[in-house]
Design the sequence.
């Protein structure tokens, strides 16, 4: 055995390897991205690892591999599960042969997401089991159990850690050597692997007969735990259990229940836990899942137990829980006087706010600025997308009018066009997002004759989630150099006739490209190509000469973090400046120099 | 031993490496360690924190309010922002050099960190270090994290030996930078020994 100090996502990767996983596929998304990165680091033997083009592709690649009897892992964030839902819903009916675990990482808060959806609800909707780890250590063990259950019941299973589990670090003991599972291979059987209404009807009935059996099995599952024996009882799951435990350490008499498997509901276990209990507090994040399931169970069995939680307003209905909210809410439920700890900070001075911003030298800033300059005074709509470039909404750029979900900018620009044909409609999409879900939107625009300008912000990486490679980068997760998929050629092949590629850091050329495209009918594309500053070496930094007249136009126009005011004068923060030279092209008196792009 | 340490600063200041080194040094001395970090969108110029919990008996991966033995702050406003995590008898090690947010260049509020340092001094035991001056001989603000670590080591609050921290610097920093990092660590140690307030 060896010890590794890893984040929860690393523990999940090590657990899957210990379980003999054969194939791993996923799409980056905070907080799930590091599972695949750690997998690539720790794997030994023949494990196929890939960043798929999107979550649906990952789900399908893993599904057919699991048909072969292989063990497969799919990773994504919770909203990725929406993308993959089409595949997963049907797969739940078809089932698998080898163990297949779908990790969908939830993000209470939300900290880096657009929704506070709850994967446990999705499990019930899809009628498949879900596992809910409370810590990295438990995630390591539990994902191995998840593979076993998946194989035992021939169904894909969901595994849902939350951000605080994914990003917490702990020491994990893991075998020196792991080996992928020996598998049988694909055995043709069209009655099993080809979904038809008849098969769905038959298998739906089987699933509904099976699920109570899994619930009974889960009633003895090692991570469904209880302690204490009071009449007041606390139910918790996921990291909320860890917060509650922090408080209940000092109250060991309180009946404290961990529900690691929300669905299928382990009814026998819950009935045992409720024995002698009069009141229950459900301390959970996102949806009131356990609370609703308990109410159902109590109703079915005619128990006289009061249930408190999100539905009764005792636990906040949105946002994440914490050790503090656990102490406050559980303390109030138990009637324990709250003791003041810590330092009184009610008199603290007002602090500067630090909204996330585009990095100094980020080429996206230049792309947005070029479009802004080119369209000054003209009616235009700017549809944004998911990625670093969502930050183009911040002042002073203010260049994102809509942002909905992956790939939506391209299609939303079309909706705006149809409702307002006078306006120029722009869609901004990153290179990775273009491959993930942008391409169909472009075809939609061509086919339906929309007028729009597609701006592909190509920085040669998936920047926001930590610089994962994608089809345009020429590298894959097996460590191989592969042919780059060309965005330009894809657009050309689709039938986009006007495609310009410019370096956004050449401001005059970029503005001219936008002006040229904005005036033309049909679908036009501009590929703003310049690598992410986080993956390139900075060039010579800019310098501000004595000619500076202090107009601050550079700061007011582009808001680069490297441009600061020092002793009343505009100055360059050398630790941040990358020498992109955009500011030098904006200065009205040519006082900024020194960079490569003068 | 149970110790809770909160590191805070602004994305890009090197809090992540400092937290890794503290965690690894504690493990080197046989302790059980858990930690947690800010990752994702908030990293980009935003406020960042790392929570390190040393000891067997922990529930929450994040330090509860009022429980931290030490706050290691890379920036004055971030120290104040996280002060509610500190135990009443805890200690704050804080760099007095401010990082002014980009919004500050657009709408001047006059933030320079002095008010925040004064406030900290009225609230808790502090070690104030001058990050800018201490980094100057090394030619880069990148050495701030080693200076902060040196100051941590000087206080002795963590119960982690100087040797363990130095050993982790040797193990985890690129070979060509080890010597300079160790010098920055030594400079931080000296500052930590001489600058205690209250």
Sequence:
């Amino acid at each position: 055995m060896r010890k590794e100090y890893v984040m929860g996502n690393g523990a999940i990767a090590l657990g899957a390897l210990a379980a003999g996983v054969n194939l791993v596929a996923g799409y980056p998304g905070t907080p799930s991205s590091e599972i695949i990165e750690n997998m690539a680091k720790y794997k030994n033997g023949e494990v196929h690892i890939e960043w798929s083009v999107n979550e649906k592709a990952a789900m399908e690649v893993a599904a057919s591999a699991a048909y072969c009897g292989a063990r497969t892992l799919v990773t994504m964030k919770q909203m990725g599960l929406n993308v993959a839902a089409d595949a997963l819903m049907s797969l739940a009916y078809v089932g698998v042969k080898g163990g297949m675990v779908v990790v969908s990482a939830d993000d209470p808060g939300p900290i880096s997401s657009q929704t506070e959806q709850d994967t446990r609800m999705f499990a019930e909707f899809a009628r498949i089991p879900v596992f809910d780890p409370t810590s990295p250590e438990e995630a390591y063990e539990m994902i191995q159990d998840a593979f076993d259950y998946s194989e035992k019941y021939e169904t894909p299973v969901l595994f849902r850690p939350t951000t605080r589990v994914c990003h917490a670090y702990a020491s994990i003991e893991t075998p020196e050597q792991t080996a992928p599972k020996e598998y049988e291979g694909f055995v043709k059987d069209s009655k099993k692997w080809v979904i038809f209404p008849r098969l769905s009807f038959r298998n739906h009935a089987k699933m509904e007969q099976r699920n109570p059996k899994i619930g009974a099995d889960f009633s003895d599952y090692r991570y469904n735990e209880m302690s204490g024996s009071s009449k007041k009882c606390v139910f918790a799951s996921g990291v909320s259990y860890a917060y509650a435990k922090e408080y209940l350490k000092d109250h060991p008499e309180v009946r404290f229940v961990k529900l690691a498997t929300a669905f299928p509901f382990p009814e026998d276990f819950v009935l045992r836990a409720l024995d002698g209990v009069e009141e229950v507090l459900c301390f959970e994040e996102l949806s009131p899942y356990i609370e609703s399931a308990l109410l159902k169970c109590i109703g079915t069995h005619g128990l006289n137990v009061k249930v408190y939680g999100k539905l009764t307003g005792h636990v906040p209905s949105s946002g994440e829980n914490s050790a503090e909210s656990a102490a406050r809410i559980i303390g109030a439920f138990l009637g324990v006087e709250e003791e003041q700890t810590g330092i009184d900070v009610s008199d603290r001075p007002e602090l500067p706010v630090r909204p996330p911003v585009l990095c100094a030298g980020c080429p996206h800033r230049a792309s947005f600025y070029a479009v802004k300059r080119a369209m000054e005074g003209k009616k235009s709509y700017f549809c944004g997308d998911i990625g670093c470039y969502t930050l183009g909404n911040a002042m002073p750029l203010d260049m994102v009018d809509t942002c909905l979900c992956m790939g939506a900018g391209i299609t939303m620009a079309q909706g705006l066009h149809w409702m307002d044909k006078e306006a120029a409609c722009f869609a901004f999409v990153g290179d990775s997002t273009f491959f993930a879900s942008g391409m169909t939107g472009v075809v939609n625009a061509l086919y339906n004759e929309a007028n729009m300008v597609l701006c592909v912000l190509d920085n040669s990486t998936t920047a926001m989630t930590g610089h994962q490679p994608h089809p345009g980068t020429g590298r894959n997760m097996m460590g191989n150099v592969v042919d780059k998929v060309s965005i330009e050629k894809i657009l050309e092949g689709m039938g986009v006739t006007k495609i310009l590629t410019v370096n956004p850091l050449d401001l005059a050329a970029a503005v001219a490209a936008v002006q040229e495209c904005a005036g033309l009918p049909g679908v036009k594309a501009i590929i703003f190509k310049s690598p992410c500053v986080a993956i390139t070496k900075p060039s010579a930094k800019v310098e501000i000469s004595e000619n500076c007249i202090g107009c601050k136009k550079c700061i007011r126009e582009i808001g680069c973090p490297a441009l600061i005011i020092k002793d009343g004068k505009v100055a360059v923060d050398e630790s941040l400046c990358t020498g992109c030279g955009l500011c030098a092209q904006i200065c009205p008196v040519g006082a900024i120099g020194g960079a490569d792009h003068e | 031993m149970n110790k809770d340490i909160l590191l805070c600063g602004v994305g890009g200041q090197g809090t992540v490496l400092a937290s890794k080194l503290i965690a690894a040094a504690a493990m080197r001395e046989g302790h059980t360690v858990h930690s947690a970090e800010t990752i994702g969108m908030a990293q980009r110029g935003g406020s960042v924190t790392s929570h390190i919990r040393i000891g067997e008996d922990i529930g929450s991966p994040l330090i509860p309010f009022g429980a931290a033995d030490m706050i290691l702050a890379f920036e004055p406003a971030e120290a104040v922002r996280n002060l509610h995590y500190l135990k009443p008898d805890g200690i704050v090690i804080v760099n007095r050099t401010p990082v002014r947010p980009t919004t500050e260049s657009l709408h001047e509020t006059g933030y320079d960190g002095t008010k925040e340092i004064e406030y900290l001094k009225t609230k808790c035991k502090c070690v104030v270090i001058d990050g800018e001056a201490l980094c100057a001989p090394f030619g880069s603000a990148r050495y701030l994290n080693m200076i902060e670590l040196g100051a941590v080591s000087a206080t002795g609050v963590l119960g982690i030996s100087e040797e363990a921290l130095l050993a982790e610097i040797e193990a985890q920093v690129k070979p060509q930078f080890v010597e300079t990092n160790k010098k920055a660590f030594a400079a931080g140690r000296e500052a930590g020994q001489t600058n205690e307030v209250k």
